[in-house]
Amino acid sequence: MKHELIHSENSPRLLLIFAGWGMDADVFRDIRRPGYDVMVVWDYRSFFIDWSCTASYTEICLLAWSMGVFAASQTIQAIDYKTTRRIAVNGTLQPVDDMLGIPEAIFNGTLAGLSEASVAKFNRRMCASRDDFDVFRSHQPSRPVDELREELQAIADRLILHTPSQIRWDMAVVGREDRIFPAANQRRSWQQSDVPVELVDRGHYFDFQDLIDRHFIDKHLVGERFSAGTSTYTSNATVQVEVVERLCMMLRDNGIIRELGQSPNAVLEIGCGSGILSRAVASMISDARMVMWDLAAPMPEGLPLGRKYEFSNCDAELAIACVAPESFDHIFSASTMQWFNSPEKFLSNCHRALKPGGYAILTTYTSGNLHQIQALTGNGLPLLSADRWTELAARHFTVVDRLAYERDLDFETPLEVLRHLKLTGVNSLGRSSRGNVDAREVMKRYPMMLDGRYHLTYRPLILILKK
After folding, report:
1. pLDDT tens-digit profile of 108-151?
2. How far is CA 196 from CA 22, 186, 391, 392, in A?
3. What does the alpha-carbon distance between residue 90 and residue 239 come to, in Å, rounded to a whole number?
């Protein structure tokens, strides 16, 4: 396999793109994601790659397209410990299969009759519209037909030795109009692997920039915005404060506060921020050593004196993967997990880091959160439903209790809505690689409700999990 770093910000995070058959780095040359370097892998005549090219990165996010889904599943294991979010686009783990991939007769016919004319026809079939084809042609790969034939034959040979994928994909994106990998086959394949599917009105070729902007978190921006909002967060984060209050009530109702106070020696809080949850935890667990992590905010103020506190600024999604097994008695996190790339991997790492009988007490937000902003800007977080969160948690924990609800805040003007987002740091969801949305345009188009006010909807989820 060949690889090329097509965009560098000297970031510790890498967006790794596995291209489809017949492609090269030029197809993705204009791709950007703030906060990430971007590398493209292609040419599957050989499945060997020297992964030292990724040695400087602390986090890798994976986007694989078409035949690249199979190639990634067969080769990524050596760096999988650094990989968080994994998105498969218009491909499957069984790339040549009458029910789960490209029908075998079509694959064999393509290989037998490969020519410059058939490659051109293939490229046209990839694109669902003339506009898509024009975009593709402006970035068209320049590889000889003989090389493409060798690549297709190498894939066919590799399938004979097909070993099951050892990685879990977070999501599969399927184009309803895909004429290369039939959409029905893709859906069957991913259903077998219990991977959620996003169906979109696209062909085989995609608007990859839009996909990347929607599915990969700009953590650098998250850190900047929450750091700037630390001093104003608590007084403006109405919903986030309420979530912690409801969490504490659930712990009391389930008789867990007494259990938490039975001489634990290590408690981890992830995303301590301004300390809303930190102070509550310190009051519940009087003699614990509290380890506190936050991406950018300083250590919270107002914590009880005479306790053992260890604080560090870090990316918790990566740091939790590095702690020794059974390091903590309990793990807490409030209003943080929505900023992680891979919820499932995070939950798995929490389970590994907890001692038997320990609790993971977590809050986050679910799909439809801040939907008014997403509808106006097109920018939002790739949030899971409450049921999907519960399903993922149940793979590792006993779900002791959960609460999912909706909370509307209302404001006098759209300007007050935007000010609220800024003062709480939540506006960090508002940047895409194609530029920021004009705040004046958002204020002009923000919908007024029948009560004459402007609403903003939060959808919190509280999970109490036991190992």
Report:
1. 999 999 999 999 999 999 999 999 999 999 999 989 999 999 99
2. 27, 11, 12, 11
3. 38
User: Helix or strand or coil: residue 6?
Assistant: strand
Distance between CA atoms of residues 35 and 434, nearest Å: 14
Contacts of 305 (CB under 8 A, 6+ apart): none
Contact by Cβ (8 Å): 36, 13: yes
Which residue type is seen at 428? S
DSSP H or E run through 415? helix 414-424
Read off the pLDDT band of 440 (50, 70, 90).
Answer: confident
Q: Residue 267 CA to chain centroid, in angstroms?
A: 26
326 dihedral zone (left: phi>0; alpha: psi -120 to 50; beta) = left
Q: At which residue do the structure tokens 């301590």 appear? A: 272
Residue 303: C-alpha distances to residues 277, 293, 319, 336 (Å): 11, 15, 23, 20
Write phi, then psi, for 316 (nearest 5 degrees): -60, -30
Q: Regarding beta strands 289-294 and 267-270, do their DSSP bridges make them parallel or antiparallel, or are they unpaired?
A: parallel
Tokens coding 384 = 């899971």
Evaluate if pTM is beyond 0.90: no
The per-residue pLDDT for range 114-123, each reduced to its tens digit, is 999 999 999 9
Residue 271 Cα distances to 138, 332, 437, angstroms: 44, 9, 27
Q: Which residue spans within 8-82 are E strands per DSSP?
A: 13-18, 37-42, 59-65
Mean pLDDT of 191-208: 94
CB 347 within 8 A of CB 393: yes
Q: Which of these, 365, 356, 312, lies nearest to 336 by C-alpha position?
A: 365
Q: How far is it, in rounded angstroms, from Cα 357 to Cα 284?
A: 17
Nearest CA-CA partner of 208 in 126, 116, 144: 126
Q: Where are the alpha helices (DSSP H) in 335-405?
A: 343-353, 371-377, 386-394
State how far Cα 177 lies from the chain centre.
25
Backbone phi and psi for residue 427, each to the nearest 5 degrees, phi listed first = -70, 5
Amino acid identity, position 384: L
Alpha-carbon Rg of the chain, whole angstroms?
24
Yes or no: say if 398 and 347 are a contact pair by the CB < 8 Å rule.
Answer: no
